[in-house]
Write a structure and sequence with these properties.
- The chain is mainly α and 118 residues long.
- The protein has a domain at 51-115: Orthogonal Bundle (434 Repressor (Amino-terminal Domain)), CATH 1.10.260.
- Helix content is 36%, strand content 0%.
- It has helices at residues 51-63, 68-75, 79-86, 94-106.
């Protein structure tokens, strides 16, 4: 039998010692209790579409006897966009205001972006 000359075992001695006295475990410091939240700490409130605008949209669509699906097909957008707009799931920001104006114009309502409440 032939043995390889490569030895994969580490034969260096390991010395195990005790900790020195006086190095006892110290618990971490307890955190300070949280202070009362201030207005700066609170996230800004997300403004939703005013109910009057949503109501006007639904009334205009129903006056034209259109379903959400039919209106979405006319606008060449996904039906869920109309559902979310009527369900007030969008923030009241410039992008969705433009969408609202576009939908209302398609329904025959003359409205300008400047006419919407701030």
């Amino acid at each position: 039998m032939s043995y390889n000359s490569v030895n994969y075992q580490d034969w260096t001695p390991v010395t195990i010692t005790r900790k020195k006295k006086g190095t006892a475990y110290t618990a971490p410091k307890t955190p300070k209790p949280p202070s009362e939240p201030t207005e700066e700490d609170e996230p800004p409130k997300i403004q939703k579409f005013p109910f009057e605008l949503i109501k006007n949209l639904m009334e205009a669509r129903n006056t034209k006897n259109l379903t959400q699906d039919a209106l979405a097909k006319q606008l060449m957008i996904n039906t869920s966009i109309i559902q979310n707009l009527e369900g007030n799931r969008y923030d009241y920001n410039s992008n969705y205001k433009k969408l609202y104006v576009t939908v209302m114009r398609k329904l025959g309502v003359s409205i300008k972006l400047a006419d919407l409440p701030k």
